[in-house]
Design goal:
Radius of gyration: 18 Å
Number of helices: 10
Number of strands: 9
Shape: globular
CATH architecture: 3-Layer(aba) Sandwich
Order of helices and strands: HEHEHHEHEHEHEEHHHEE
Strand order of the largest sheet: 3-2-1-4-5-7-6-8-9
Low-confidence stretches: none
CATH superfamily: Vaccinia Virus protein VP39
CATH class: Alpha Beta
Helix content: 25-40%
Largest sheet: 9 strands, mixed
């Protein structure tokens, strides 16, 4: 079965978006995040951007040796278009915009991971979103949160027992629990995730107990000096914190705590 953190990374943003017709997923990997991003009937095209071209053939070989319902489902999904290229170059030169752009989770200290956690990368994502579109990233470090919030005027930190992620947009958006739950209960979405062997109740519980913090344009971004850039990918080189930690415990101007789990709920 697909790892729950990859499923959550792909699932939560598509449930949040009102109508995610076009999605780009950077990194094919095991196919888990790519699969999870396909859970909405409104989605017409999913572009998988992978720099290692043989990865798709490897997954096709794997599913013949070890049958897995989730992997089989993603490989048979006619909405997915595979592109083998450097993702930043592909997005920069492709001339397309997307309702959702996200990267499959990559450990921040992996070689060259800084290219997918930098201020410049997040700017590239922001500039290739459709109106109301979401950029999404795993948020494994506070520095990633700082970098992301510095770029996006509207940003949201989502943390549950499976994943910590950032969702950002050029336009305002809200956490609408009722709409998210309604989309999760739709016939298409229920059938889609069931075919992949996804235990939906796990994610229903996670969504209900997640910590959600929103950052608006009023948030003071000048304080966010300790960030990742292309020239200084600090997380990749394990550089320690260079300033005071972010205050995420209490509301302040431009920071709103939407939901915080009760003690012992995680």
């Amino acid at each position: 079965p697909f790892p729950p953190w990859h499923i959550a990374l792909g699932m939560v943003p598509v449930l949040m978006h009102p109508s995610p017709r076009t999605i780009a997923v950077i990194g094919l990997g095991s196919g888990a995040t790519l699969y999870a991003a396909g859970g909405r009937e409104e989605t017409k095209r999913i572009t998988s951007i992978e720099i290692v071209a043989p990865q798709l053939a490897t997954l096709r070989q794997l599913v013949r040796v070890k049958s897995d319902s989730g992997l089989r489902a993603v490989l048979n999904d006619a909405r997915i278009v595979y592109r083998f290229a450097d993702a930043r170059r592909f997005i920069l030169l492709g001339g397309e915009t997307y309702d959702i752009i996200e990267a499959d989770a990559l450990r921040p200290a992996s070689p060259y991971a800084g290219n997918l956690y930098s201020e410049e990368y997040f700017e590239l994502m922001k500039n290739h979103l459709s109106v109301g579109g979401f950029a999404v990233t795993w948020a494994p470090t506070e520095r990633v949160i700082r970098t992301f919030v510095k770029v996006f005027p509207h940003a949201m930190l989502y943390r549950d027992s499976n994943i910590h992620m950032m969702i950002g947009s050029r336009q305002p958006f809200e956490w609408d629990s009722a709409a998210i739950n309604a989309r999760l209960r739709s016939t298409y979405t229920q059938a889609y995730y069931s075919r992949g062997g996804v235990p939906l109740q796990r994610y229903v519980t996670a969504l209900a107990t997640a910590e959600i913090i929103a950052f608006s344009p009023d948030y003071e971004r000048s304080r966010l000096g300790d960030i990742n850039t292309d020239l200084f990918p600090r997380d990749e080189f394990l550089v320690g914190a260079l300033g005071a930690p972010l205050n995420l415990k209490r509301p302040e101007r431009g920071l709103r705590v939407i939901s915080r789990p009760a003690p012992g709920s995680k």
